[in-house]
């Protein structure tokens, strides 16, 4: 088992707040040169990142991978478009759903699996403001129930 195997390197915490995640897919990601060293270090930012199907391939846009400090002239462009590796059936499913109004393909988290960098992408439908408030109320109520349960267990 390789070092850092199974460890989540970056996570998109805003995704569950802004979207209803309907389906998830695990995708490989094509990286250049020193990008994998920055990814293993955890220098990844998903803010404003999204995926798009173009010409039968899936590309990840606006994901920031910081340049590697010891990379000097071999460093990469931090915001370059990166290709995601998926099966043809998965791509066609994503293409069909993402063309519907309100759907987006967003990255949820990045991790290392068997020595390869993987991105968990989700097929997501945008939440309205009242949905976000309802989710927040539900989370708060659940937190209070758990707190009361813990207090009762102590007695």
TrEMBL record:
**What are the subcellular locations of this protein?**
Cytoplasm
Q: Which Gene3D superfamilies match?
A: 2.40.280.10
Which InterPro entries did the record assign? SmpB (IPR023620), SsrA-bd_prot (IPR000037), SsrA-bd_prot_CS (IPR020081)
Q: Does the keyword ATP-binding apply?
A: no
Source domain of life = Bacteria
The cross-references to PROSITE patterns, in alphabetical order and at most eight, read: SSRP
Q: Which residues form the signal peptide?
A: none
- Membrane-traversing stretches: none
Keywords noted in UniProt: Cytoplasm, RNA-binding
Q: Main role?
A: Required for rescue of stalled ribosomes mediated by trans-translation. Binds to transfer-messenger RNA (tmRNA), required for stable association of tmRNA with ribosomes. tmRNA and SmpB together mimic tRNA shape, replacing the anticodon stem-loop with SmpB. tmRNA is encoded by the ssrA gene; the 2 termini fold to resemble tRNA(Ala) and it encodes a 'tag peptide', a short internal open reading frame. During trans-translation Ala-aminoacylated tmRNA acts like a tRNA, entering the A-site of stalled ribosomes, displacing the stalled mRNA.
- Entries under HAMAP family matching the protein: SmpB
Q: Which family does it belong to?
A: Belongs to the SmpB family.
Write the protein's name: SsrA-binding protein
Organism name: Scopulibacillus cellulosilyticus
